[in-house]
Design brief:
Transferase(Phosphotransferase), domain 1; about 40% helix; five-stranded antiparallel beta sheet; alpha+beta; Meiotic_Drive_Suppr_Kinase; 10 strands; 6 helices; Phosphorylase Kinase, domain 1
């Protein structure tokens, strides 16, 4: 990768950035990506950024921030603290509004539920070990949920660490694990049917609304 980093940066600067538009419709939903490039494929989007893959560099991706660019600086610092670890991506370089990252293969747990793909216990255990490592280097795993963790060949990985600098306790991963052990394993795992996106996404949005209301009531 190091041999081609300058070429890759040139492709980002000349072919990607001028052909994409990142917009915000709702602060509670992922950013909306418009991609007019023929060589760059949009492979994901989150609350702050879109993720793109070039066909000539399948081992790396570029994450382009569309809002809150100060978050990019914080994400760089998080990656520097993580260093190289099997549970996470790796930072190869960055520009004014983008990061160059190792591509993690796999399907998100969110999409696995939709498609009826079994999620083994080892995936959950791998993610737990990765989060414990992050804590050991002074980070605080935050906003870990089914859309930013993936499984590949039966192992689990964390693909989004952008909020690991935040303080306080985030219970999303703990709540997901409870649902996994109390609902998913006994009722869905063995004969895992596909579940419509609208159903799974409604549960996701309902959970977020429930947590927001509960936080207000607890104040």
């Amino acid at each position: 990768m190091q041999m081609n980093i300058n070429k890759y940066v040139n492709l980002i600067e000349t072919e990607l950035l001028s052909n994409i538009n990142l917009s915000v419709i709702s602060p509670f939903d992922p950013i909306v990506v418009e991609n007019r490039s023929h060589l760059w494929k949009t492979i994901g989007c989150g609350n702050y950024a879109g993720v793109f893959l070039h066909e000539s560099f399948p081992e790396v991706v570029v994450k382009v921030y569309g809002r809150n660019h100060e978050e990019l600086i914080k994400e760089i610092e998080v990656y520097k603290k993580l260093g190289v670890h099997e549970s996470f991506s790796r930072l190869y370089g960055y520009g004014e509004n983008y990061l160059i990252l190792k591509k993690l293969e796999g399907i998100t747990l969110f999409n696995a539920v939709i498609k009826g793909v079994q999620i083994p216990k080892l995936v959950i255990e791998d993610i737990d070990r990765g989060l414990e490592y992050a804590r050991s280097v002074g980070l605080n795993p935050f906003d870990v949920h089914g859309k930013n963790v993936v499984m590949y060949e039966g192992r689990g990985y964390i693909v989004d660490i952008s909020d690991f600098y935040k303080q306080g306790y985030c219970r999303k991963w703990d709540d997901l694990k409870k649902a996994y052990h109390k609902i998913y394993r006994p009722f869905l795992y063995k004969y895992h049917p596909p579940i419509p996106f609208t159903v799974v996404d409604s549960i996701r949005k309902g959970y977020r609304t429930y947590r927001r209301v509960k936080r207000i009531l607890e104040k």
